[in-house]
Design brief:
By secondary structure, the chain is mainly beta. 9% of the residues lie in helices and 48% in strands. It has 3 domains: 83 residues; 86 residues, Immunoglobulins (Immunoglobulin-like, Sandwich); 60 residues, Immunoglobulins (Immunoglobulin-like, Sandwich), CATH 2.60.40.
């Protein structure tokens, strides 16, 4: 073998090596694996774009061994899982080029849920807000309850959003003077849960009413609020929201008005009857006749 043939063989070997090495670099890939269960949500992937190679990072995506995306040309990818049953096992494998890393935007959607939970409840001088997780029932709803004289009463109802991730809610509220105690009640097909109770203290002046003792036809409050009027035996006669309460239809007697978180007594007296003036006797005119 002459020197020229030897050089050609060396050059060919080097070219083959470079080709194989280059092909290996081009085809080199890594994988991100997400394992969990289907909880009603799709998975979203951020797919980086390399301006130098003019190509995207993700090469393919498999779900339970089946390729559902191949060489996707988009920076935002959606892994459609709607064909699975709720709580069915899912394994998602994201194959990507080395030197770049795609980002799974919502990995929590595959986490095995621990059921519905209240994450946080807050109250300030004008609103109540709360955060939950684990909702899956679109028909569920919340009842905002307030403690009124040892009785929990619903003051607002709110439709649930039904997302398994964090759900945030906020409603307006009017506080009574003094302590105000609340709780949130979650009602769904497969869940019935209460939040822990939470309080707010209002330093505003208490609502008063007048007349204080004897009431004829009208009770006036210093500001509008919800009220109840009942007998001393507890029979509710009137309830509503307002500032002027007409009681002209109540019989005389003792009653209780419930405003804010307290009870006050009032009395409706017998109506005053005016004594009619005596009728004047007609004077008989004497004409002198016998």
């Amino acid at each position: 073998m002459n020197h020229c043939d030897l050089n050609k063989r060396i050059i060919n070997s080097v070219l083959v090596f470079l080709f194989v090495f280059t092909a290996s670099l081009v085809n080199a890939q890594e994988a991100i694996v997400q394992i969990g269960v289907y909880r009603g949500k799709n998975l979203f992937i951020q797919n980086p774009y390399d301006s130098k190679t003019k190509s995207y990072c993700v090469q393919s995506v498999e779900v339970n061994g089946n390729t559902i995306l191949s060489s996707p040309n988009s920076s935002a990818l959606t892994v459609d899982l709607s064909g699975f049953e709720i709580n069915q096992n899912v394994q998602i494998t994201i194959f990507h080029k080395s030197g770049c890393v795609p980002k799974v935007l919502n990995p929590r959607v595959l986490q095995q849920g621990t059921g519905f939970q209240f994450v946080q409840t807050l109250v300030d001088d004008s609103s109540i807000s709360w955060i939950t997780t684990g909702e899956q029932d679109k028909s569920a709803y919340y009842e905002v309850e307030k403690l009124k004289l040892d009785d929990w009463r619903t003051i607002q109802k709110v439709k649930a959003k039904g997302d398994i991730d964090n759900n945030q809610y906020s409603v307006g509220v009017v506080h009574y003077s003094g302590d105000n105690e609340f709780r949130i009640h979650y009602l769904a097909k497969d869940a019935d849960a209460y939040s822990e109770t939470f309080n707010f203290y209002s330093a505003k002046d208490p609502i008063s009413f007048y007349p204080i003792d004897k009431v004829d036809d009208l009770i006036s409050l210093t500001e509008p609020t919800d009220y109840i009027i009942k007998t001393k035996e507890g029979v509710i006669l009137k309830k509503g929201v307002g500032q002027d309460i007409f009681v002209d239809d109540l019989k005389p007697g003792e009653y209780i008005i419930v405003i804010e978180n307290r009870e006050e007594e009032f009395y409706k007296p017998e109506p005053v009857r005016e004594t009619p003036l005596p009728k004047k006797k007609k004077r008989v005119k004497n004409d002198g006749s016998t």
